[in-house]
Amino acid sequence: MAKAIFEMFDNLANFLEDRGAKPGSCKAYIFGGCALHLHTNARGSSDLDIELEAMDRISPNELVLALDEVFFDDPETGPSSIVFDPNFTPTLAPLHEDYQEDAIWLNWNEEDSPVWVYLVQKVDLAVSKLGRYGDQDIDDIHTLFDHGLSIEEFKYRAEETRKYFPGNLDRLTGNITHVIKAYTK
C-alpha cells in the first residue's frame, strides 16, 4: 500500500514538472487511514486523505486530475486500489497549530521534486480523529497508542489544540476525556 501511495505522488510530481513547478512548490500532508498505515502498518484505506498546499498556476481541479487512481496487490485482500479523496479537508478537524511544522518529511523523491510529502505525527493524527470520533477513529487512536504514542503526549497535544479549536468544545473535551479514560484503565 505504501508503494501505491508514493506512486500517486510520483504521478503528481510528473504532472507538476511538466507545468514548470519549482522544487517544493506543492506540500502534501498525509492524514487518515493512509497515515495510520504508514505509521503502524495496520489497517489501510482505499482513499488518500491529504492536505495540499496551494501553488501558483495550478488549479485544485488540475491537481485532482493529476492524482489518478493507483492499483496494487494487497497481500491480504488481493487486487486493490487507492484514490485521492477530493472531499477531505483538515479544516474541520481539531489540529494543533504546529502540525505542519512537526510533520515528518518523507524523502521518497529528490529534493528538487515539486512535491514534498509530509506525514503528520502520530499525535496529530490521533488528535485529528477526535473531531468525527466514530468507531473507526477510536480504533485508530488505540492503534496509535499500541504503536508508540504516549498518553502523556496525547493529553498535552489535545489540550493545547482545545485552547483554540473553533468547533464544539464540550464535544471535543468529552472525546479527549473518553480516550484518556479508556486507555488508562
Element layout with pairings:
Blueprint: H1 2-18, E1 26-31, H2 32-40, E2 47-52, H3 60-66, E3 70-74, E4 78-84, H4 99-102, E5 104-106, E6 115-119, H5 122-128, H6 135-146, H7 151-162, H8 169-183
Parallel strand pairs: 1-6, 2-4
Antiparallel strand pairs: 1-2, 3-4, 5-6
Helix pairs in contact: 5-6, 5-7, 7-8
Describe the protein's architecture and organization.
This protein has 185 residues and is α/β, with parallel strands linked by helices. 45% of the residues lie in helices and 17% in strands. The chain contains eight helices and six strands, in the order αβαβαββαββαααα. It has helices at residues 2-18, 32-40, 60-66, 99-102, 122-128, 135-146, 151-162, 169-183; strands at residues 26-31, 47-52, 70-74, 78-84, 104-106, 115-119. Strands 3-4-2-1-6-5 form a six-stranded mixed sheet. A hairpin with a 3-residue loop joins strand 3 (70-74) and strand 4 (78-84). Helix 5 (122-128) packs antiparallel against helix 6, helix 5 crosses helix 7 and helix 7 runs antiparallel to helix 8 (169-183).
